[in-house]
Specification:
Elements lengths: L1 E2 L4 H18 L11 E6 L5 E6 L4 E2 H10 L6 H20 L12 E4 L4 E4 L1
Length: 120
């Protein structure tokens, strides 16, 4: 849930993000590397907005930190696989005429139940 506060610009940014996510989620069949959004909304006078999305275990930043904490290197093929999935998801987004302006490990979700590396 995101806090919008009284800033109209923040609300417009959230509404634009929801428009794009809804556009991406409405494509059938769903792209395996795009997080699916089922519902979204908010109340007129409330500073809160919600996105009801598929449940995934962790983002890529947390996934990589597990390796760092144990001083265990990631397998090169595992890295290539994750990057290929992210690139495939970004290609799908770009083919629909949209641009992801916040690509970072925190916005990439890794989970077997979510088909690998999804982009949010």
């Amino acid at each position: 849930m995101r806090l919008l506060g009284d800033q109209q610009e923040g609300k417009r940014a959230i509404e634009n993000e929801v428009r794009i996510i809804t556009k991406l989620s409405s494509k059938r069949p769903a792209h395996p590397n795009i997080v699916q959004v089922f519902r979204h909304g908010g109340m007129d006078k409330s500073p809160y907005y919600y996105l009801d999305m598929e449940l995934c275990d962790e983002n890529l930043e947390h996934y990589m930190n597990r390796y760092r904490c144990t001083n265990t290197p990631m397998d090169i093929w595992q890295i290539w696989n994750i990057m290929a999935q992210i690139a495939d998801g970004l290609s799908f987004i770009h083919d629909l005429g949209e641009l992801h302006r916040d690509i970072k490990p925190n916005n990439s979700i890794s989970d077997v139940s979510c088909h690998g590396a999804d982009i949010f």
